[in-house]
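Service request form, structural biology core

Requester: graduate student, group of Dr. S.
Request type: structure prediction, single chain
Budget code: on file
Notes: please return the result as structure tokens.

Sequence provided:
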Amino acid sequence: MADFLDAKVKEIEGRLRELRPLLDEYHRLEAAAAALGGVEARPVRGRTRGASSTAARNGASAARRGRPRGSRGDNTRAAQAVELVRTRPGITIPELAEHMGIKPNYLYRILPQLEEEGRVRRDDKGWLPA
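Core staff response, request fulfilled:
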């Protein structure tokens, strides 16, 4: 009976080793799907026929669409980052990025801007509410 149990335990352990990479892939795909959940697909615009300059291709003569550069609405990642800093003083950029489900490079750019605006302040490696 002990030989049978030992064989079954080894069989289960082997199967677990086989399935581990699939589970890891599942978690990566699940995180990617969650990260892309709020992203809206936009059509890719190619070069228009006859447009030879960058200004002509980008419609420099037309007014800029969308919100003005530098303004941030209330429902942005910047506001989310400020709220996380408020609720978790001393949080680091990698921790913020992990909690927000984004890469840290955006936060390395935006947090110094938020510091200039007086919304947060840096404390060694962490961030504190202003």
